[in-house]
Amino acid sequence: MKKLLFINLVGVILLLSSCDYLRTQFPQDTIEQTLKTGLVPINGYFWNDVDYFRHQHRDEILKTLKVEEKIEVKGSDLCLVLFSYSVASQIKKRAQWFRKVDGKWTFCATYFSQYDDDPLGNGDKESAKKLLEKADKWEESSKEIWW
């Protein structure tokens, strides 16, 4: 039983370490605060190479972090944020969904598919699909940057 539990734990850790995601200690009052606490990992806690890279370049990343656009989804507690940051001459563009929970913003871990009938669950499937396409196009220009 302990061996099976250990194997499952290792599997979950490997699965999580293979994803490029953001995390925050606690939800924040603003999206910008949540981004700053989630973009750069806490000292000594790195899941993967991206976390380590962001930690090593945290000052430059935080200095160059720009929220380019925030799009709140009508009829929901979701917001799509298009942001960028740079290290040296490379500019990374990211799209991230946020959810407002108890009046504070946190990262949304839900995957929204363009192929769903109502991807965001607010009844406006056309608008949702346009937002998902916009997020994909935003990230497309810097997809070659591994970090």
TrEMBL record:
PROSITE patterns: PROKAR_LIPOPROTEIN. This is Lipoprotein. It comes from Prolixibacter denitrificans. The lineage of its organism: Bacteria, Pseudomonadati, Bacteroidota, Bacteroidia, Marinilabiliales.
